[in-house]
Design a protein that fits this description.
Elements (H helix, E strand, L loop, with lengths): L5 E6 L6 H18 L13 H8 L6 E6 L5 H8 L6 E5 L14 H14 L6 E4 L5 H20 L11 H13 L3 E5 L13 H8 L2 E5 L1 H9 L3 H14 L8 H21 L3 E4 L4 H6 L4 H9 L3 E3 L4 H14 L4 E9 L4 E6 L16 E2 L9 E2 L1 E2 L3 E11 L5 E10 L9 E7 L3 H10 L6 E5 L3 H11 L2 E4 L1
Parallel strand pairs: 1-2, 2-3, 3-4, 5-6, 5-7, 7-8, 13-16, 15-18
Antiparallel strand pairs: 9-10, 9-17, 10-16, 11-12, 14-15, 14-17, 15-16
């Protein structure tokens, strides 16, 4: 049998009393080494989520001793749990000095954050101990946790050879694993009545292994306002090369678009964001004077799944669609039904990747249909013979479900001001619309190139999600 692997994770942040933390770290290492001479310990405290990620990624623990060396928020425990599903001993240190002065460690509050994450991560069971490294209760708790984990490891059945998986199951498993490395961003809040797109960071991490960070849209607006004309020039050129008719947009809006494009791009690159959902109205119109529609469109062509109206589960659906199709995907509302053609039209008010545009028109720039401000995308999408419509949805009890339908994208011109794509569905389009409305599905959907229903169903099975296939 493989040797037992005990791993020590001393987490914290550098804003507390580092001299006290260093002392507790050294004493904790000695205490653990006295119990297990092969315990795996970092060279120094793990003072960021990135440091924790780098340390834990190559390891295969049988037991983790997770110690709040100082206070650390729930993101540290989330990072562990997205990669590890074994036993955890949560260890809180005793505050070393109480003298009316500075709080040195604040380890206990950190334990509450870590435990809250554990409970919300599928109610994950864990052991807990409070005390200084030399206390007998701490040593006993570690020994008991090691004995229990060692016994469980010894009793674990040998792995049996699995029958050959189907191609869609292999693809779904690889996609699920890739999701565990995705970092998303929520840029601002959903507008009133659009709460279906909201997501909790703990829920995204537990259900999908996805990390979520949040930023107020005003922060990116302020960053855009600080961009000089010279700094914006490259982003203006990128846009001009990707679209048609930008010259009809007033110069101020063209420059402000380029500033906003740079601000979003800088943020995405600095934080390693693979998908984002951005608030768009009314803030970008009222506070900035230029819409974000074209910025999000270009980000999608840059490989970042970018949804508008702050729809996080829409953005996650887009990211999955981009992985499956290898291309940008359409994101929009079902707005029109034609029973004779058996079609559904999906539309949005000014956002779609330029690469989706009809070849005879290109990615035309216009104005937002309601606000009459540009630049916003204004084109019909190209035809393609195989299409999949997809949405990660929610049941009223909070459980997840997949909407899946297949068909083809027809050769149709722009249907309304904004961007549009017309899909002839395999299923009866009227029945599809009526039944999905009755089922209470959300109003935003992804349309991707190719038929990917089998892989999406296999992915739903891996997660234990319901499938609504039409």
């Amino acid at each position: 049998m493989d040797p037992f692997h005990l791993v020590y994770l001393p987490v914290g942040v550098g804003t507390f009393h580092m001299e006290s933390a260093a002392d507790q770290f050294a004493r904790s290492v000695r205490a653990l080494q006295a119990i297990d001479g092969n315990v795996i310990v970092p060279e120094s405290p793990l003072l960021s989520v990135e440091a924790l990620r780098e340390f834990i990624t190559p390891l295969h623990p049988d037991l983790v001793v997770f110690q709040n060396l100082t206070f650390a928020n729930g993101a540290y425990m989330s990072e562990l749990l997205r990669r590890y599903d074994g036993p955890v001993l949560l260890w809180t240190l005793r505050e070393p000095v109480i003298d009316g002065g500075r709080l040195r460690l604040n380890s206990l509050t950190g334990a509450y954050s870590a435990a809250h994450t554990l409970r919300n991560f599928g109610n994950r069971p864990f052991r807990y101990v409070f005390g200084a490294p030399e206390e007998e209760a701490v040593g006993n708790a570690v020994r008991e946790a090691v004995a229990a984990a060692s016994s469980a490891k010894a009793k674990a059945p040998a792995r049996e050879e699995c029958p050959s998986a189907k191609p869609e199951e292999v693809q779904a498993a690889a996609l699920k694993e890739k999701l565990r490395g995705l970092k998303m961003a929520a840029v601002g809040h959903t507008p009133q009545g659009f709460g279906f797109g909201r997501a909790l960071d703990a829920e995204l991490m537990y259900r999908f292994g996805v990390e979520l960070e949040s930023i107020e849209v005003r922060e990116l607006i302020n960053a855009a306002k600080a961009v000089s004309d010279e700094e914006a020039a490259d982003y203006l050129a990128r846009t001009e090369n990707a679209v048609c008719g930008l010259d009809r947009t007033p110069e101020k809006n063209r420059l402000d678009h380029a500033r906003l494009y740079k601000a979003y791009t800088d943020y995405v690159r600095a934080h390693g964001i693979g998908a984002l959902a951005s608030r768009c109205w009314p803030d970008l119109f009222t506070e900035f004077g230029t819409p974000v529609c074209a910025v999000l469109s270009l980000l999608n062509d840059d490989g970042v799944a970018a949804a508008c109206e702050a729809d996080l589960y829409g953005a996650l659906s887009m990211w999955i669609g981009m992985q499956l199709s290898g291309e940008a995907v359409f994101f929009g509302d079902p707005v029109s039904l034609d029973e004779q053609e058996n079609t559904l039209t999906f539309w949005h008010c000014g956002m779609a990747a330029c690469s989706l545009a009809r070849r005879d028109t290109g990615a035309v720039i216009g104005v937002h249909p309601n606000r009459k401000i540009g630049p916003a995308m204004d084109f019909g999408c190209e035809a393609f013979p195989e299409a999949t419509i997809f949405r990660i949805g929610r049941e009223p009890d909070g459980s997840f479900r997949f909407f899946i339908a297949e068909g083809e994208a027809l050769d149709k011109p722009k249907q309304f001001i904004g961007t549009s794509i017309v899909i002839r569905t395999d299923a009866d389009s009227r029945r599809l619309a009526e039944e999905s409305v009755q089922a209470g599905f959300e109003p935003h959907y992804v349309v991707m190139k190719g038929r990917h229903g089998a892989v999406l169903k296999a992915l739903a099975k891996l997660y234990g999600f319901a499938v609504y296939e039409y």
